[in-house]
């Protein structure tokens, strides 16, 4: 199992190839490729590469799936016995990112094609 920890939007996210993640809004158009070089850790078959602060030569490639707004967060402020109430909502802009591959020093450690299990097709019976 290969995974990496990246930094995006001021947060650290553990990512694996073939999965999508909702991160802070990125200024990239939909269906475009994205390269992330802020990689803090890479783990591949028991070998752990820890950056100080970043792993040299580590690249995460992904595709922007879509942009959307997250669920609404309600902020309700009330002062008791004063008849003052404030109810406000907030929806954060979010980007859905599909991780395509994890690369370390030019070698692809894991990719989306490797992580997906191949579907077995039924073989037709041969008539003799």
From TrEMBL:
The record's keywords, sorted A to Z, are: Ribonucleoprotein, Ribosomal protein, RNA-binding, rRNA-binding
Residue spans of biased composition, Polar residues class = 116-128
* Gene source species: Limnospira platensis NIES-46
Reply yes or no: does the keyword RNA-binding apply.
yes
Q: How does it assemble?
A: Part of the 50S ribosomal subunit. Contacts protein L20.
Q: Name one GO cellular component term.
A: ribosome
Q: What is this protein called?
A: Large ribosomal subunit protein bL21
The UniProt entry, under PROSITE patterns, shows:
RIBOSOMAL_L21
Gene from which the chain derives = rplU
Q: Which NCBIfam families match?
A: L21
Q: Where are the transmembrane segments?
A: none
Region annotation (Disordered) maps to 107-128
Name the family the entry cites. Belongs to the bacterial ribosomal protein bL21 family.
């Amino acid at each position: 199992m290969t995974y990496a920890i990246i930094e995006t939007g001021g947060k650290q996210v553990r990512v694996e190839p073939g999965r999508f993640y909702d991160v802070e809004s990125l200024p990239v158009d939909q269906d475009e490729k994205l390269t992330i070089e802020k990689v803090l850790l890479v783990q591949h078959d028991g070998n752990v590469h820890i950056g100080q602060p970043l792993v040299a030569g580590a690249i995460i490639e992904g595709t922007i799936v879509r942009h959307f707004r997250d669920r609404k967060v309600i902020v309700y402020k009330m002062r008791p016995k004063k008849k003052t109430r404030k109810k406000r909502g907030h929806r954060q802009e979010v980007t859905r990112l599909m991780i395509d591959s994890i690369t370390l020093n030019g070698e692809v450690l894991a990719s989306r094609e490797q992580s997906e299990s191949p579907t077995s097709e039924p073989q037709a019976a041969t008539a003799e």
